[in-house]
Design brief:
The complex is a heterodimer of chains A (about 1150) and B (about 375). Helices cover about 45% and strands about 15% of the residues of chain A. In chain A, a hairpin with a 2-residue loop joins strand 18 and strand 19. The radius of gyration of chain A is 37 Å and the shape is elongated. In chain B, about 30% of the residues lie in helices and about 20% in strands. In chain B, strands 3-12-5-10 form a 4-stranded antiparallel β-sheet. A 4-stranded antiparallel β-sheet of chain B has the order 4-11-8-9, with no helix packed on it. A two-stranded antiparallel sheet of chain B has the order 1-2. The chains are: A alpha+beta (about 1150), B alpha+beta (about 375).
Amino acid sequence: MTNQGPYLKDNVVRSFKYTPLTFLPLTLFEQFQRAANLYFLLTVVMQCVPVISSIPWYTNTIPLLVVLSTRGLKDLANDVVRRRSDSQINSRPCDVLLSQSFSTVQWKDLCVGDVLRIHKDQIIPADLLLLCSSEPQSLCYVETADIDGEINLKYRQALAATHAKLTSEPTDETLAAFDGIALCEEPNNRLYTFRGELRWQGQHLSLNNKHVLLRGTVLRNTDTAYGMAIYTGTDCKILRNGGKLRVKMTRIEKLLNNVVIGIVLSLLAVALLLAVGSGVFGSSVSPHNEVLSAQLVDGNPLYTAFLNFWSYVILLSPAMPMVLYITFEVLHLLHSLFIGWDIEMYWAQTDSPAQARSTSLNEELGQVRVRPMDLSWNPFASGGLPLSAPMLVERLRGQKCPITTQFFTALALCHTVMAEWKEGEWFYQATSPDEEALVGAARELGWVFLSRTRDSVTVCELGVTRQYQLLALLDFSSNRRRMSVLVREPEGGLKLFCKGADIVVLERLQRNCPYQESTERALECFAHACLRTLCVAVRSVPEASWEQWSKTLTVSVTMRTYDRDNLLEELYDDMERDLQLLGVTAIEDRLQEGVPETISMLRQAGLKIWVLTGDKKETAVNIGYSCKLLDPDTRLLEGQELRLAAEFDRTPEWGAKFMGLTRHCQSVLCCRVTPGQKADIVTLVRKHTRSVTMAIGDGANDVNMIKTAHIGVGLAGVEGSQAVQNADFSLAQFRFLQQLLFVHGRWSYRRIAIFLRYFLYKTCGFALVHIWFGFFNGFSAQSLYENWFIALYTTFYTAFPVQCLALFEQDVSSESSLKWPGLYKVGQHEELLNPRVLSATFLYIVYTSLVLFFIPYGVFYNSALDYQTMAVTVATAAMLCANLEIILITRYWTKLSIAAVCVSVVLFFICTRITHIPLLFQMSPTDYRFPGVSDKAFIDPVVWLTALLTAWTAALPSVTIFTLNIILTNANKHRVHSTSRQPMELRSKFIRGSSLHHSSYTLSQRREIGQPIMSGTSIRHTVPFVAERSCEGLNVLCHDFSSASSGSSLPRSSTPYRFAKLATGLRYEQQGALCNSVGWMPERVVVARFPVIDQRKSSQQNKEHVQTYHPPLPSVRETQTPGSGSLSESNDDNDSLPAGLRHLCKKI
Amino acid sequence: MMASSYSAKEEDGHHSGAPGHGGNGGVKSKKPDNTAFKQQRLPAWQPILTAGTVLPAFFVIGLLFIPIGIGLYVTSNNIKEFEIDYTGVETTSPCYNCAQNFSWNSTALCSCSVPFTLEQPFESNVFMYYGLSNFYQNHRRYVKSRDDSQLNGDKSSLKNPSKECEPYRTSDGLPIAPCGAIANSLFNDTLDLYYIDSNDTKTPIPLVKKGIAWWTDKHVKFRNPSGSSNNLTAAFQGTAKPVNWRKAVYELDPSDSDNNGFINEDFIVWMRTAALPTFRKLYRIIQKKPNMAPTLPSGKYVLEVTYNYPVRSFEGRKRVILSTISWMGGKNPFLGIAYITVGSVCFFLGVVLLIIHHKYDNRNNNADIPN
């Protein structure tokens, strides 16, 4: 056992922040780190200084307390939730070796050095050193979805020494006798590296990452594993890693913050100017006036001016009320509740309503312009295997056709699926849903895959259990596009079963293979039906050739150079020849309901759609067509953009050029993208455009992207809950996106934008009056309002209508929002809240404050009416003006909104009367200075006439613009309707390819899975990325291009069209322009759609474009080795851009 | 007419409920409630506003404001007002001498008589105001410089005035009553009005000095200490008079105990500070005569001023205003003009918008025809 030192952490997780003692200081500390709160605190503090206090302390203190306590309570509630989840995690059970036998303890009781027993599907409670496992050679498989979001299994293997000594029975005793000392590095956050040493029985064994089971991973496909805890609690790598949560902020919020800073700065500037005025007044006017000169503080005008500066800062502070922030947050919260409450987004099958996990991003939903998404739809997303054909099974039993039998045997053997017996049923775990589907299909038809070991596969064939010896697994790679298994049948024969993309398999068939013609017909037929096809073939391998082949294989596997991969490929190629065709499989990739409609709506709304998928290009293009992302009129631009994400960090100009290219496209399709690259692309988009990006995905591999985008949407799909947990919004169905964006997003944006505009208007308009009043009171920071009015104005007299507006406002109903997606563009173009609108608002604010002051000024000038009457008059006018404005803005009058306006106005009169009650004055003369004023003012016709005239004049520009809008929009309505009625249905009327079949063999992108399965070759690859040559489609393409450029017999005008057809088996109605380039990264294809308008405009150009386009294409068809550069040698252009990108850029 | 649609989107009941999830007791469904509020389908009135409904508002408001403005203007013009500037800036002014050699501290009284002629008789009650210009009675430190508790008769404040009153809080160690700058600068000119009839006889015109303050001020806000005014001198024992005052607060009107001390109406009126630097305050009321004779017949008058209040240092002006009043108070031409202006602007805007509307409508119709 290792040493137990006092410095070692226990295994308790404490993610909560507060204890009863520290809550108050901590929460205050946190809150005052926000600049706004600090500003408000300063104004409150200043108000308590009698010399400068222009309004009493309670006007700002009460709102500040409300803000602080609301936030504090919210944090506290979150903390309680965290505490609960902590205690739940800490009390999870696990098996620990305590004196000779295992007993169950809670997670929190673990210590470093404990030996643990982990069962299948258990979560690993601490970072463990794997000692041994129930599997051969102490292998064990872990799922790391919770750590890095990858759902494929990874294997870990114990040291040979511990495996050998500890797995002898009985395990408990041998484990109890284990007395090794593990030396580990300091706890750190590096998930993928570990260095250590195990000292045991006089041996010094070095440890690395492969020997460690990390906390948070899940043990899979392994019965039990034994490990020794090396890091516990907060020392665990995953806990060292966590904690950095990027807080997403909406654009409006950022704009608001800037506006707040701007307002505060300009208020300070105005206060400074007024203070200068006060200094001038103090030094030029006051000395002559005995009455006023006595009022100079210490008789010093400069000092008085200094104090007046602060007085003005306080007096003008209501222009920037903190109620704004708290209202803003409450509105966000309510808007997200509305999303959860929407029955239109409730999915009954899984009983899941939509959920806004982040409450502060709603209005951003109304501004999305770019939307990367993952389209790797699970083929059986809409139901289980639709395969239950007893008739078919009967016929298969009856007929003993060897080809049919072998076909299903091949399906049951040739895969990398893991089988598991659970609850009386076989569960298959596969990295590719296609594989799972095929193995499942074989099972349904009587060929049940039972289990696999490293060197055997057990299959039950129509009731007969047979064990095949697994000799070699020729793994899938994206450029081989096939995989094979070499097995020894129980009868002793050697068979190679191969399945792969049709084009690859077909060219490896032996000559005169029977059924080839009918197979090709079937392939064509399947391709028409939008199915993903694979060919299955077999080869009987002679014993002699196997022996020689395996020898060569052993040699090449041990080679350490990077040539090894090429050698292996060649070897594999040798083996996979002279195949005999067994049959064809076809898998339907069923899209979720409503996907095409949703996508076509998103496109109508002007969203740029980026599809980032790990699939192959063909699949992606195919899905693109079936979900109406692409349509037959789409002009496709393809480029194999290489080293995309990896290089954009280093060479930003590439990123800029790439973005410049995509700016002209409406949709972008990126294939073969890894999760990390997905995030990189999102970052790229965010960096180079000002657009709001929204990422949507359902799998754990989309987590990165979801976290990086402005808005992340997770689909609660079959691929696990990772995406949902990291998303800002979660939906049950893709089509609910319509509702989320076009209804909730649009409304939210509108409501928040109008709310902010109005809020600034009403607070600034009412506070700026003091500037003008300053000119007539010697810049003495005299308030024009009663203190109570200032305190109640923002909270009582004007708050309710705007809150109703921000909750209920609908310019058009949800049905119309969905009917006319074009309406969504308002948010994308920031039409409701942008610097221009804001400056107009500020002009209007200044106008309003001028009117609010100068009309009463004209009336009260040289009159017998006193200051307090004027205060009430201006207050009435300001209140009326604010409510008049909201009446003009509101379009959707619910009973509540009507009530809110009425209540506000009535409250003003009631509260004013109450605060003017003489009794209150007698109780506290300093707080209620206006006894009896409203009694007298509200019966004075002059006060009323002045207030009404002022309010109306202040609102006049608003009324005029309102009317102008009505006149102009009524005229425009026709246009809006007629454009949106244009047929937007995009029908895919293309005929699927004739000469080539659409196929996509989407096995795992990584080879890792296959390897430990293979006996003898369970050495991990040293090169993480495999050299991948261009796919066959582009090879064909290049070939044709070269023939075209050399003036082949093909007529010029039709060539581009044919190339495209050849390349992907799809028919493009427009000329496709294609180019390629090759590198060591997985290929990516950019398929860009050009807006229809562009085409019309540049149809002339297009022709030209096509004609001049052929020659510069490099003809590339070479095998690329890692690190040997990406550009083809035949390309003499030294431009640093990849060829594909360069050509595309040139054209655009 | 205001076209409107009352879109009562009723809840669509239960028929849209999820299949298989309706009413199962065991597991609580997460299905959101189908209520109008949660589905954002609250019945609402969405006025369909068209140019036809909005444009008339401009004309209506315009046509409403212009007559109001004319009415106000006419009313204001019908008010008779006579203003006498007696500051004494010009050498020809009768009060020139008084204004020249005067300061707060001079003890000698200076009087001057300002003759004037009313061309027209003043009917009904006539209000006599004094007006000051360039006097910042709304300066914050000035406005603050008072102690409302003291003025309300609070005994402890009487002896220990609020700090706001500085530097007019104490005088020679004694608390000042009433303290503060406002009280200290009390307007203390005495104005008397005489009618000079055809045979040059000076007839004093009776000036009523009560009823010029607000009721709440007189009865709630201002109260003499100890409540009773029987022995004011005793009540104010131990306090000093404001620095600039010639007599103590309990000597403001010894003849009328109801108008003495803090509840002296001249004092109360002064303490109700003005909104702007140029203002007027009610000084006296000239009651109309019981018979049909005008309150102030046309003819010659003389204003006798006891010149105490210095304004020349800050280029202030002192005026006396005689004015009849109407339902809208004193003369106020501004309001009428403002109403007429805003009304005309509305009307004008209405016309402009109407033209725009017509142009757009035509163009739009023309554009629509080919479609």
